[in-house]
């Protein structure tokens, strides 16, 4: 007998094989301890605090997580742990994020991460100002290479 789902179809044997592999991966992930056992909002530091099964505690600034940056303390305080600790959910905000993503430094969609990167690049620190002054004394920012411009083609490495 075949299992059908929309335009997809697989045999019972293929289904059993995929199910066994998914179960194996799930057990391996559970053993790693990289899943949440507790989560809370710390209003004094404006951070989400996530306690993992392996004893590690993860602290993430609210401003980094997509959908949480402008939320009130009351809405941020209500956090649910999804599944077997694989994700966090803020029901009043309808925001969820994976624990694996947080551990990997992924705080939202690709577009959100790009926006965080742009905002970080705009930051002005004394170190950036000093580097800019030094570059100015040396003639400014180094010019980009002109290779591949003016009709010349780049050579591909063999």
Notes on the protein architecture:
With 158 residues, this protein is an alpha+beta fold. Among the domains are: 36-108, Uncharacterised protein PF10387, DUF2442 (NE0471 N-terminal domain-like), CATH 3.30.2020.40; 109-140, no CATH class. The chain contains 5 helices and 8 strands; from the N terminus they run E-E-H-E-E-E-H-E-E-E-H-H-H. The protein has helices at residues 12-32, 73-77, 99-103, 110-122, 126-137, and strands at residues 2-5, 8-11, 36-42, 47-52, 57-61, 80-82, 87-90, 95-98. A hairpin with a 4-residue loop joins strand 3 and strand 4. It starts with a strand and ends in a 21-residue tail after the last helix. The mean pLDDT is 84.
Largest sheet entry: 3 strands, antiparallel
- Count of beta strands: 8
Oligomer: single chain
Helical content stands at 25-40%
Question: In one word, what is the shape?
Answer: extended
Strand residue content: 15-25%
State the strand order across the main sheet. 3-4-5
The appropriate CATH architecture of the domain at 36-108 is 2-Layer Sandwich
Low-confidence stretches: none
The number of helices is: 5
Please state the average pLDDT score.
84
Distance between the termini: 50 Å
């Amino acid at each position: 007998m075949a299992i059908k789902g929309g335009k997809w179809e697989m045999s019972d044997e293929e289904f059993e094989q995929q199910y066994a592999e998914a179960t194996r991966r799930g057990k391996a992930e559970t053993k790693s301890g990289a899943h949440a056992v507790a989560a809370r909002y710390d209003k004094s530091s404006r951070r989400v605090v996530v306690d993992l099964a392996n004893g590690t505690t993860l602290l993430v600034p609210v401003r980094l997580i997509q959908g949480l940056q402008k939320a009130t303390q009351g809405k941020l305080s209500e956090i649910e742990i999804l599944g077997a600790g694989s994700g966090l959910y803020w029901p009043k905000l309808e925001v969820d994020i994976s624990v694996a993503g947080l551990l990997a430094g992924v705080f939202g969609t690709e577009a959100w991460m790009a926006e965080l990167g742009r905002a970080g690049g705009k930051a002005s620190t004394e170190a950036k100002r000093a580097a800019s002054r030094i570059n100015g004394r040396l003639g400014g920012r180094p010019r980009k290479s002109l290779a591949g411009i003016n009709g010349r083609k780049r050579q591909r490495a063999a």
